[in-house]
Amino acid sequence: MNRLPTLFLRLMLDKRVPLKLKILPVIAVVYLLLPWDFIPDLMPLIGWIDDIVVVILSIGIFFVFGPLSILTRNIGQNHDLDNEQPVNGKVVEGKYRVVDDDGDTTETSQ
Length: 110
Prior knowledge:
By secondary structure, the chain is mainly α. It has four helices and two strands; from the N terminus they run ααααββ. Strand 1 and strand 2 form a beta hairpin. Helix 2 (19-33) runs antiparallel to helix 3. The radius of gyration is 23 Å and the shape is elongated.
């Protein structure tokens, strides 16, 4: 949850995200700042409900309808080391050791 603001900022600054999606959160912020609302803010909690709904919907639409490849790349799912392909066909051979909770070790090589 704490990575959402960073992800949001990265997507807003990314040139591959369409401009019409970037405008949507900006419109939501403008709606918050304008004195006209669907429900007047003079009613303490009820008046803020429409503001909260507009912001949540606009950010949700921004994330859902954004390009999936850009979103996953910025989240970091494409940078998983287990799924990373070797660069230029170079493979580094090595050994690793698996240690179980009960102290058994198994050595393997790749």
